[in-house]
Design brief:
The protein is an alpha+beta fold. Helices cover about 20% and strands about 30% of the residues.
């Protein structure tokens, strides 16, 4: 097994080994403000925003928003996101109720694979954006979820209720959605601890040098194009494992296992090692143009048939945060990708 390691990767901060103190105000019919008092114990050294993300199970952007909004205090004083925390520090956080959702519930078909009172597992269609964002105000998975269920976790913010992890617009497949905040925190912590198993099927240009192989390279925003991510110095550690299922004339059919969950991680890592996802207009559009040799015609036909990036979240496994039950789900690739795979098999 080979390991592709980028020397720019930074070490991961040590896991926090202690639980802080959580004080909740009396429960009312409306969601109450939560006051968190987090005591930093021996052996913990981190930046404040990272510390909060790990301890509270919130996204980094949510924690930065809390800090910049004046809701976080370090040693009794208003904090900055870059403040360091160390043993003996006391961090106090006021998490106010989210504003009423401005996202409209829409009657959009939703493929629900599993549902109980705590969570849902859905099979997202390619072409569907997960949550509203500039340019995509509606028609998203969140719009569909709000029509399907009466309550979702508010931890993700008013535009991302229930969303624990995401899939890119043109990536299809499985993802889990939290109905309540405790479920959301439990699932987020499981992802952070790498206890959630996520496997994707991907068609990638060219042939991997070895199988299985691991790509360990930090991912961050591309300084030349803000719409893209890239392997960058100072990026967040990203770990992807690759295994060839089938080898075709000018492409490999892969099982891809995520050990971290960075934005565009699979697409960035495969492009970084010279084997971008087939059909990926953002990271792999130029690959087939530069190809020569006897397989050029085959590659051009594959490129023509791939109407979107050939990436599908096929397997999802985790321990249910409320019941402790081991949950495993599998979703076959949708017709657009299945037809490409069948053609490539010849």
């Amino acid at each position: 097994m080979s390991i592709w390691t980028d020397t720019r990767s930074q070490s991961v901060c040590p896991a926090l080994r202690t639980e802080g103190f959580l004080r909740r105000r009396p429960v009312t019919k409306t969601r109450a403000t939560e006051s968190h008092r987090l005591l930093v114990e021996e052996g913990t050294h981190d930046r404040l925003d990272r510390f909060l993300a790990r301890r509270l199970g919130f996204s980094r952007s949510r924690c930065v928003g809390l800090i910049e909004g004046g809701s976080v205090f370090l040693g009794g004083l208003p904090a900055k996101k870059s403040d360091p925390v160390g043993p003996g520090d006391l961090v106090e956080v006021e998490v106010h109720p989210p504003e009423p959702l401005s996202v409209e519930a829409q009657d959009i078909p939703l493929d629900v694979v599993f549902e109980d009172e705590f969570l849902l597992v859905v099979n997202k269609a390619a072409g569907m954006v997960v949550h509203p964002a500039p340019g995509h105000p509606d028609g998203t998975l969140v719009n569909a979820l709000l029509h399907h269920v009466t309550d979702l976790s508010g931890i993700g913010g008013k535009l991302r209720p229930g969303i624990v992890h995401r899939l890119d617009k043109d990536t299809s497949g499985l993802l889990v959605v939290a109905k309540g905040d405790e479920t959301h925190v439990g699932l987020s912590n499981a992802i952070r601890k790498r206890e959630v198993r996520r496997i994707y099927r991907a068609v990638a240009w060219g042939h991997l040098p070895e199988s299985p192989m691991t790509v360990d390279a930090p991912v961050g925003r591309d300084s030349r194009d803000r719409k893209k991510m890239a392997v960058v110095k100072g990026g967040r550690r990203a770990l992807t494992r690759l295994r060839v299922r089938e080898r075709w004339p000018a492409a490999d059919y892969l099982d891809v296992s995520l050990k971290t969950g960075r934005t565009h991680q699979i697409r960035v890592h495969l492009a970084h090692i010279g084997h971008p996802v087939v059909g990926d207009s953002l990271y792999g559009a130029k690959w087939v143009r530069g190809m020569g040799g006897e397989n050029r015609g085959w590659a051009q036909e594959l490129d023509r048939r791939a109407v979107r990036q050939m990436l599908h979240s096929s397997d999802l496994s985790f321990r249910h945060p409320a019941t402790g039950e081991e949950m495993s789900f599998r979703a076959a690739a949708p017709d657009d990708m299945a037809s490409v795979v069948e053609w490539a098999k010849g």
